[in-house]
Write a structure and sequence with these properties.
- This protein has a 6-stranded mixed beta sheet, with helices on both faces. Strands 3-2-1-4-5 form a 5-stranded mixed beta sheet, sandwiched between helices.
- α1 crosses α2 and α3 crosses α6.
- It has 262 residues and is α/β, with parallel strands linked by helices.
- The protein is built from 6 helices and 11 strands.
Length: 262
């Protein structure tokens, strides 16, 4: 079995694959760092609680945007699974031609998204919108060129900033709304968060399409924790919450790691 870990600024999102089948998904906060022992014990307990024998894990792949967690996670995998994990970072085969001015600047999450999208939709131009702590919108050509994109404060990060930096604005539940006009403070914040993100995605997708995909329109893929929040607005051709895990599975294949390796 294969353990894939998407380590973001807010949470660790894990998935266990048996072959190509995603058997188990789990989440843990990444804001409380924890030691390698604490994280390792958590992983083994959550696997057992989901009827997965931790000793059946043969490969671990990690996509991480929190550099100070990498040493802890690697030590955790070595001690609790007897595995040196595959970490998505410069030098790993990805199958992508990265056209950033400095390819090393591109976050591992954006690379994994691109790899996963190309795996699922080969031969298509793609725009991937990932709604995590930050919202990223990235353009990938059917020739497997990562062109770049946009990085914007995420939905929850925007709400947290309003609460933290104002005297009277509260934290609110992030939900889809019908009206563009809020009639209470809470409704006003909810409407602002929701419709500003809808408008932002529409504008950026339109601009990217006009600039680089005008002759061959792209598929638009939504992923990340808040992507399904906007599903009814028809912003995306497909919503794929597990896209980063799909990308990590493809990275394992590209680097010819057998699930039986330890």
């Amino acid at each position: 079995m294969i353990l894939c870990l998407d380590v973001g600024n807010t949470q660790i999102y894990g998935g266990v694959y048996d072959g190509d089948d995603l058997k188990v998904q789990f989440r843990r906060t990444s804001q409380t760092r924890g030691s390698s022992d604490e994280i390792g014990v958590f992983f083994r307990i959550v696997l057992r609680e989901n009827d997965i024998d931790p000793d059946d894990i043969r490969t671990v792949a990690i996509c991480c945007v929190v550099p100070d967690l990498l040493y802890t996670l690697r030590a955790c995998c070595q001690k609790y699974f007897g595995i040196d994990p595959l970490i998505l970072r410069p030098g790993i085969k990805t199958g992508l031609k990265i056209l950033y001015r400095d390819p090393k600047e591109v976050g591992a999450d954006r690379i994994a998204d691109a790899i996963g999208a190309l795996k699922e939709f080969p031969g298509r131009n793609l725009i991937v919108a990932d709604f995590g702590t930050a919202t990223t919108i990235c353009a990938i050509t059917k020739e497997k060129e990562f062109l770049g994109g946009n990085i914007i404060p995420g939905v929850k990060l925007s709400m947290d900033a309003l609460e933290a930096k104002t005297a009277q604005l509260p934290s609110v539940e992030i939900v889809p709304v019908e009206s563009g006009i809020g009639r209470t403070t809470i409704e006003s914040i909810q409407a602002g968060l929701y419709w500003s993100n809808v408008g932002m995605v529409k504008e950026l997708v339109a601009r990217i399409t006009q600039e680089v995909f005008s002759e061959d329109p792209p598929l638009v893929i939504g992923t990340g924790g808040f992507s399904q929040l906007f599903d009814r607005e028809k912003l995306f051709d497909h919503v794929m919450p597990d896209l980063i895990l799909t990308g990590l599975m493809e990275v394992i294949r590209l680097n010819q790691l057998s699930p039986n390796n330890s």
